[in-house]
């Protein structure tokens, strides 16, 4: 079993105080904290081998290129992609989704259908709406139930020969529900549709195997995985990446350029125009190495314990409602206390050193479904402890007394 007390020593930020109180960081679903090994990796890059990659003959450029490409292989192995060039380094989940949505504009026709789930993050709704506007394709939505599950029977009914693309998150960021993506992928493939899975919220807790899932595209962000912000990955099956046009034109993504005709570089460079976030990519690799050294099975088991503990304590508070009660959940709890605005709870918790998220969590359709302005969301990581949850419950009781 994982020893959170030991693990906390890897995260210097957990030592700091907020408003004179020890920081309790329960906003991990928005971004995770960074271990010292990743911070060291970032410093090492700028201190020792900062250079542009792929083009230089000089030593620094070659060192940086080697490290960057090693990171790609670390990412490839982590997600079990068949080939390193099926991993495109992006600026994050949003970038990866936009790359695919924009690429599909040339493969989709009027009246084709795209299916998304009701549980999506805005970054998974808006690019598809833009694609539909551009192409005349139609957006269909898999509805959700009161408990936060997708209505899978409706999904099966929505699928037909016009369905070209299905889009779903692996785990909902607002509720923490793990979606049945295996079933979604299998059913979508039966009608010839491609599937893109948003793994931003799943990857901090689950190690996905893209070949076993047989998924066409999978995207994630490093900053939710103990890595830096502004870097992420897009996995695409080779045949799809060959078929899709480049997203941006520029340096690095070309083979030859003349004013008459430009030919594009091969994978993965076709999708990596311009100077990338070199340091970020290398640090992403270091973050995955760190998380694998802790072990995803250990992380999952420990976080499940934290989730069960927090659930029990929260359920004992009068007038507190938790949204999304599935057995298949990651360590995220979205809730409200009757008669209190989530923002007010968040503001009082902050004064007590506790960081939670309040609001619509970039998922307004879910909030509309429950007819609420937002929720308080506490999300736990493997460096959190039961003692912190006890302090959080105490603080919540205090907030409730003050506000009611
Ligand atoms: C965080 C998140 C995103 C957006 O990630 P960025 O790093 O901001 O691009 C998308 N989808 C889900 C489910 C998320 O949790």
Descriptive report:
The chain has two domains: 4-30 and 295-403, Aspartate Aminotransferase, domain 1 (Alpha-Beta Complex), CATH 3.90.1150; 39-293, Type I PLP-dependent aspartate aminotransferase-like (Major domain) (Aspartate Aminotransferase, domain 2). It has helices spanning 4-8, 36-49, 59-79, 93-104, 126-135, 152-158, 181-190, 210-213, 238-243, 278-294, 296-315, 342-351, 364-370, 386-403; strands at 17-18, 21-22, 24-25, 87-90, 113-117, 138-142, 163-169, 194-198, 217-221, 232-236, 254-257, 262-264, 320-323, 332-337, 354-355, 357-359, 375-379. It has 404 residues and is of the alpha/beta class. The chain is built from 14 helices and 17 strands. The longest helix has 21 residues, at 59-79. Helix content is 40%, strand content 17%. Strands 4-10-9-8-7-5-6 form a seven-stranded mixed sheet, sandwiched between helices. Strand 7 (163-169), helix 7 and strand 8 (194-198) form a beta-alpha-beta unit. The mean pLDDT is 95. Bound molecules: pyridoxal-5'-phosphate (PLP). Residues 92-94, 121, 123-124, 169, 173, 198, 200-201, 221, 223 line the site of pyridoxal-5'-phosphate (PLP).
């Amino acid at each position: 079993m994982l020893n959170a007390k030991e693990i906390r020593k890897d995260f210097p930020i957990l030592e700091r105080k907020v408003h004179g109180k020890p920081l309790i960081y329960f906003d991990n679903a928005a971004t995770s904290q960074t271990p010292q090994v990743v911070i060291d990796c970032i410093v090492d890059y700028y201190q020792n081998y900062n250079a542009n990659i792929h083009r230089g003959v000089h030593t620094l450029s070659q060192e940086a290129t080697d490290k960057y490409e090693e990171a790609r292989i670390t990412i490839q192995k982590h997600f079990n992609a068949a080939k390193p060039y099926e991993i495109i380094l992006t600026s994050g989940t949003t970038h990866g989704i936009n790359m695919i949505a924009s690429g599909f504009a040339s493969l989709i026709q009027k009246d084709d259908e795209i299916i998304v789930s009701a549980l999506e993050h805005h970054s998974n709704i808006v690019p598809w709406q833009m694609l539909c506007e551009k192409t005349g394709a139609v957006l269909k939505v898999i509805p959700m139930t009161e408990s936060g599950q997708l209505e899978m029977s409706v999904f099966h009914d929505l699928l037909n020969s016009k369905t070209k693309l299905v889009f779903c998150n692996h785990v909902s960021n607002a509720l923490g529900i793990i979606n049945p993506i295996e079933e979604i992928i299998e059913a979508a493939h039966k009608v010839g549709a491609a599937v893109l899975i948003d793994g931003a919220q799943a990857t901090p807790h689950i190690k996905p195997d893209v070949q076993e899932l047989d998924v066409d595209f999978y995207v994630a962000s490093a900053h939710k995985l103990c890595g830096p912000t502004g870097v992420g990955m897009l996995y695409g099956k080779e045949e799809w990446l060959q078929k899709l046009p480049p997203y941006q034109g520029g340096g690095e993504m070309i083979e030859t350029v003349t004013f008459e005709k430009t030919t594009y570089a091969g994978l993965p460079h076709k999708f990596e125009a311009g100077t990338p976030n070199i340091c970020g990519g290398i640090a992403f690799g270091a973050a995955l190495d760190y998380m694998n050294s802790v072990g995803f099975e250990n992380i999952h088991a420990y976080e499940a314990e934290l989730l069960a503990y927090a659930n029990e304590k929260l359920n004992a508070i009068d007038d507190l409602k938790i949204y999304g009660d599935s057995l298949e959940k990651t360590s995220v709890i979205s809730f409200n206390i009757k008669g209190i605005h989530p923002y007010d709870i968040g503001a009082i918790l902050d004064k007590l050193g506790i960081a939670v998220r309040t609001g619509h969590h970039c998922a307004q359709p879910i909030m509309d479904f429950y007819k609420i302005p937002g929720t308080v969301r506490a999300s736990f990581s493997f460096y959190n402890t039961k003692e912190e949850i006890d302090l959080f419950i105490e603080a919540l009781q205090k907030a409730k007394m003050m506000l009611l």
